[in-house]
Amino acid sequence: MLFAIIMAGGSGTRFWPKSRRDRPKQLLTLHGDASMLQQTVARIAPLVPAERIFVVTGADQAEATRAQLPRIPAANVVAEPRPRDTAPCVGLAAEIVAAQDPDGVMIVMPADHVIRPEQVFINAVKAAVAVVEDAPASLVTFGVKPTRPETGYGYIQRGEALEAREGVAVHRVAQFREKPDRGTAERFLASGDYAWNAGIFVWRARAILNEIRRHKPLLGAALARVGAAWGTSAGPDVLAAEFPEMERTPIDKAVMEKAGDVKVLEVVYDWNDVGDWRALRSLLPADADGNAVRGDVAAVDTRNSVILSDDGGLIATIGLDDVVVVQAGGATLVARRDRLDQLKAMVEGLGDRGYESYL
Amino acid sequence: MLFAIIMAGGSGTRFWPKSRRDRPKQLLTLHGDASMLQQTVARIAPLVPAERIFVVTGADQAEATRAQLPRIPAANVVAEPRPRDTAPCVGLAAEIVAAQDPDGVMIVMPADHVIRPEQVFINAVKAAVAVVEDAPASLVTFGVKPTRPETGYGYIQRGEALEAREGVAVHRVAQFREKPDRGTAERFLASGDYAWNAGIFVWRARAILNEIRRHKPLLGAALARVGAAWGTSAGPDVLAAEFPEMERTPIDKAVMEKAGDVKVLEVVYDWNDVGDWRALRSLLPADADGNAVRGDVAAVDTRNSVILSDDGGLIATIGLDDVVVVQAGGATLVARRDRLDQLKAMVEGLGDRGYESYL
Questions:
Q1: Residue-wise pLDDT tens digits, A258-293
Q2: Are the beta carbons of B129 and B153 closer than 8 angstroms?
Q3: Beta-carbon separation of B318 and A340 below 8 A
Q4: Which of A68, A180, B94, B227 stands 20 to 30 A from B268 (CA)?
């Protein structure tokens, strides 16, 4: 059976003032008419029924997450006692899946990415499932065909070509690469051998648990103890005791770069990790001057800007270029788009300025 | 006796979103802790008691004006039935003064300028009164010593030097000049013969009425009819009938440029006509980065900007230079300072965009 694991951690800084401590990006409706999380659940729903969809999130956000997903069983929203990066998160999910179905296959996907069109995604998931059904030890990743020399994403270099599945090309992974500099990204794009690492994985639960045990034996043993107690009355206590002590490490580094049978699917869809307010320029409809606008806005002599009025007030702009103006929750951000890398530090400093209530 | 006439007309566009149709600039508290109008009344109060202070304003604004000035008799707030520029306004005030005191002296001053220090202003008023007491037909204007080649003000060229009064130099006026271009303004500044036309006049009521009758006989006759009825039960009806038909013309052009005995005092004080949001940079205390800030503001990597949060929300800025951000009355303006000349047109266009409620 196929299970879906939606990774919904994350803090509330990159989309401030809309995001807050208890309202991180995946819970926000940034485009369309549903939150990023709700859109992610809807994306996989054609292949996975609600009772096999799990959401792993932070303890602070579990309640709001359940409220947004009334059709998902409350117990399927799993609260991490403390953030430990993706390896413990993925391992915990794999234990839960394996406990329900020893041969269960799982897709792991971030809660806060945009993928279009959905049919191409669905087709890629089917291809991945076919791959792991043939080769039960395989770990499959999604590699998005790059369209620009992006320096903000990790890359996957393709190795030997294997047979195509459902029309999707399958390759061995030659290597994973961290976010490159501009020149390297241009070389990656020109070579045609590299894909963006989209953070989506498909594998049998037992396969990833085996690999975790092999490469991170302490983590594997701790996960096994949690898995053994899962579903019993001791489950919550064992999770609370074990999870915070697990090694804080990403699954890519902990396992994927070392595992034996790692494959990459070449997926060809629009993909956007919605990294910050800049991303809305390609997600919201643009006006004739290239502005992405939502709510009551009067933009005069204004270009290439993102202007959101989510509190009901009017925002009027004159003479702006490449600026982000967002009003939400009683706060207004006005920032040059190319300075948004300072947003996190600004938000983290609000407490020192006496503005804790806006965190 | 000395009377004060405060000209408090004006629309609500240049300080939008704080200014609105029924709340023009002079009624706003833009700096300090009182409105521009209240600060203007306080400035002249050491020389003129409340019952001899008159405020001429628009019909839409009379009520709000009276509410701001509880110590001024309600009848002293005179509502123009329709805006007719400054010649009818000044003439109406002169008729009212002459009716109370045939030898009355009046100072005419705008409601929305900043003058510092006040003692220098008071001293200049005393000097002007001394001049018109000696020469009853004189029209006296205030010429502010210029400190920069400002292109936004009118200028007065000084002619023959007369005796100083109260330590203030008195000259005949050689000519009035409209707002100059940059090169002309630089020449004016270098010559030392030019002063900024500050829009403040001192004269006997009868002297200005005589000059109006001489140069604008139709206007003079209409004003005389209003003056004859003033204070009788017919007063309001005569004003309502006559005023809208009066010639719409500024007092400078209608009379001052043609009158025989026009003198200019050289006044040396800080003067600011608070033309638009830019002006607040010199009126509000600036932070270390040259920002004028009021209310809850977090300005990061931001310079030379004006940021006002008057609705109680937080405004956070990142990476701005020379930008105006103002939040008031449920609306937010974000504008490059050098594009503020588009503000009037933007505000006037709000109705067409469906945002009438913000006018």
A1: 998 999 999 999 998 888 998 898 889 899 999 999
A2: no
A3: yes
A4: B94
CB contact under 8 A, B17 and A323: no
Query: Would the pLDDT of B91 be above 80?
Result: yes
pLDDT tens digits for A30-58?
998 999 999 999 999 999 999 999 999 99
Task: Find tokens 């620009």 and name the residue.
Answer: A148
- Cα B279 to chain centroid distance, Å, stands at 15
Q: What is the pLDDT of residues B310-328, one digit of tens each?
A: 999 999 999 999 999 999 9
pLDDT at residue A110 above 90? yes
Task: With CA atoms as reference, report the closest residue to A128 among A263, A270, A272.
Answer: A263
Please tell me the total number of residues recorded for chain B in this structure: 359
Burial class of residue B338 (count of CB atoms within 10 Å of its CB; 0-12, 13-18, 19+): exposed
CB atoms within 10 A of CB A186: 14
Kindly list the residues from chain A whose CB atom is less than 8 angstroms away from the CB atom of residue B339.
301, 318-319
| Extended strands (E) in A36-112 | 53-58, 77-80, 105-110
DSSP string, A247-304: ----HIIIIITT-SSEEEEEE-SEEE---SGGGHHHHSPB-TTS-EEESSEEEES-BS
How far is the CA of A320 from the CAs of A17, A29, A58, A101, B321, in angstroms?
A: 20, 25, 38, 56, 11
Report the C-alpha gap between B304 and B281 in whole angstroms: 8
pTM of the entire predicted model: 0.88
Per-residue pLDDT tens digits for B12-49: 789 999 999 888 999 999 998 999 999 999 999 999 99
At residue A71, φ and ψ (nearest 5 deg) are: -90, -15
Q: How far is B332 from chain A (nearest CA, A)?
A: 5
Residues of A with a Cβ under 8 Å from any B Cβ are: 16-17, 296, 298, 300-301, 309, 312-320, 323, 325, 327, 330-336, 338-340, 342-343, 345-346, 349-350, 353, 355, 358
The packing angle between helices B36-44 and B118-134, to 10°, is 50
Give Cβ neighbours of residue B90 (< 8 Å, ≥ 6 apart): B5, B7, B108, B201, B208, B251
Look up tokens 């991170």; give the residue: A216
Count Cβ atoms below 10 Å from residue B154 Cβ, excluding itself: 15
